[in-house]
Amino acid sequence: MIDKNQIVGASLVVLAIALTAGAAMADRGDRMGGPMGGMGGMAGPMAGMDFAAVDADGDGKVTQAEIDAYRAARTAAIDTDGDGLLSAEELAAMYIRTATERANAQAAQMIERLDTDGDGKLSAAEMATRPMPTRMFDRLDTDKDGAISEAELAAAKDRMTERRGDKRGGKRGEHRGGNHGPRGNN
Fold first, then answer.
1. What are phi and psi of 39, to 5 degrees?
2. Local structure of residue 2 (DSSP, 8 states)
3. Long-range pairs for 28-34 at CB < 8 Å and ≥24 separation?
4. Please, what sign has the CA dihedral across residues 146, 149, 152, 154?
5. Rounded distance, CA 119 to CA 97, Å?
6. Tens digit of pLDDT for each residue in 37-58?
7. How far is CA 36 from CA 72, 83, 151, in A?
């Protein structure tokens, strides 16, 4: 049986994670800003935040009180049931909204770039004009035989995994700063 204290503790952990999400994304170098926000164009824990939105009094300066109020308002906006806590469902909905907005913007940019006939849609011919498929094919075809083997594809996936791991400070599945997650400190 689940103890009420465990539920409250887990809820507080989720809230703490949500409140630091912007800083964590900025630390990763996410310039898009996270759902919790950072400070656009700057590195560090404030990367991605809309300065004007945080500068509540419009004086061209951001105080700690304004940052705290901004984050509290963002958290309240995510807390759709108004209970003062962020559930996994509320956090998932936040990330889905953010991903959907980003995907819609990327799709619109792609159509704007590639839609040569102006019909607002991309044909197979228009999609084929992208330079990436040729470069990617050439990069994957490491033995230059004009075909990509399963081994070449697997090797490319391994190289990508290694690169991503290096950017995070470790190999795949490793995390800096210790063990994280629901079973992290058992």
1. -130, 110
2. -
3. 28/168, 29/167, 32/102, 34/98
4. positive
5. 27
6. 444 334 455 556 788 999 999 9
7. 10, 18, 41
